[in-house]
Automatic annotation (TrEMBL):
Gene3D superfamilies: Isopropylmalate Dehydrogenase. Its cofactor is Mg(2+). PANTHER family: DECARBOXYLATING DEHYDROGENASES-ISOCITRATE, ISOPROPYLMALATE, TARTRATE, ISOCITRATE_ISOPROPYLMALATE DEHYDROGENASE FAMILY PROTEIN. Signal peptide: none annotated. It comes from Candidatus Argoarchaeum ethanivorans. This is Isocitrate dehydrogenase. GO terms for molecular function: isocitrate dehydrogenase (NAD+) activity; isocitrate dehydrogenase (NADP+) activity; metal ion binding. Its EC number is 1.1.1.42. Belongs to the isocitrate and isopropylmalate dehydrogenases family. It holds the Pfam family Iso_dh.
């Protein structure tokens, strides 16, 4: 029986990148059914409403084994809906957003080779969207932090370190200022750490680690960087720069019974239809999804093929110093799949 994946083509460059991913996955001959669904700003502009995801798409999401989300645009301004990613994370309690940060071969990273994983709490914090206007002059946003969510994401971070045989979890916070919210987060990290005595906890204030990641990023190699929603959103973006291109960064959103996979970059509407954007982040998000669905060998084959194409350096997109189109780099990856 085939697994089913709800697939969101998204906005901007999203549809063309999803095609790249689907072509690569098809080359592995796995038995997975991809069901295309609508979501994003383009759909919302046509239909309106309070959500970027139509009801019929929610029905497919509910019945699927996983979701793949290509980049979607989130409209700004008062009264506009929350993002597609935040909506799905909250609906399915996908509490661990996981972004591996690892140097690719032959890419000349700006600050040297790095290899660590960013784990971000994905359901609450400032992304809970609890804002209000108190008067004409004053608006407030609530930073929602629960011990349950902190404990869940901390446990995932320690388990991920254990799976990788790594010995450090880096807890990123600002508990000297945010004494209750960050204080609760840090307490739950330390509570979980008792169950993993072989893994050390390093505590870093958010501002300090932002500096250390530029000054000496290698001290965090083979570590799990862990933080609350907005803090890790910002820090993981900084970490992505250490690899040299956001077009190489893929991510997963993991819950107890469901998962969503996506490239880390945005929809880049100015490049839509130009067949120009690096497809690697989308393709590797797909490979990560294959592993989640039990297709470990196919996943490994895609990762290996991508490494080979980047190492050879002859068919690369503009952000990697080449001139290849998205489709050309995708075809080269397919040629390298065993």
């Amino acid at each position: 029986m085939s697994k089913k994946v709800a697939t969101i083509g998204g906005d901007g460059v999203g549809p063309e990148l999803v095609k790249c991913m689907l072509d690569v996955v098809d080359a592995t001959s796995v038995n997975i059914e991809f069901i295309q669904i609508e979501a994003g700003a383009l759909w919302w502009k046509k239909h309106g409403g309070t959500s970027l995801i139509p009801d019929e798409s929610w029905d497919v999401l509910d019945s699927a084994d996983a979701c793949f989300k290509s980049p979607t645009t989130t409209p700004g301004g008062i009264g506009s809906p929350k993002s597609v990613a935040v909506s799905i994370r909250q609906q399915f309690n996908l509490y661990s957003n996981v972004r591996p940060i690892k140097t690719f071969p032959n890419t000349n990273p700006p600050l040297g080779d790095v290899d660590f994983v960013c784990v971000r709490e994905g359901t609450e914090g400032l992304y809970a969207g609890k804002e209000m206007q108190l008067n004409d002059n004053m608006h407030i946003a609530l930073r929602l932090i629960t011990r349950d969510a902190c404990n869940r994401v901390a446990r995932y971070a320690f388990e991920e370190a254990d799976r990788r045989c790594w010995k450090t979890v880096v807890a990123i916070h600002k508990s000297n200022i945010l004494k209750q919210t960050c204080g609760a987060f840090l307490e739950e990290v330390n509570n979980v750490s008792v169950e993993y005595p072989e893994i050390e906890v390093w505590e870093y204030h958010i501002d300090n680690i932002a500096q250390q990641l530029i000054k000496n990023p290698q001290i965090f190699n083979q570590s799990i960087l862990l933080s609350t929603n907005l803090f890790m959103d910002v820090i993981s973006e900084e970490c992505s720069g250490l690899v040299g291109s956001i077009g190489l960064i893929y991510s997963s959103n993991i819950g107890d019974n469901y998962a969503m996979f996506e490239p880390a970059h945005g929809s880049a509407p100015k490049y839509a239809g130009m067949d120009k954007v690096n497809p690697v982040a989308t393709i590797l998000a797909g490979a990560l999804m294959l592993e989640y669905l039990g297709e470990k060998k196919a996943s490994e084959n895609i990762f290996t093929a991508v490494d080979q194409v980047i190492a050879e350096g002859s068919v690369l997109t503009y952000d990697l110093g080449g001139s290849a189109k998205s489709s050309e780099m995708t075809r080269e990856i397919i040629k390298n799949i065993k």
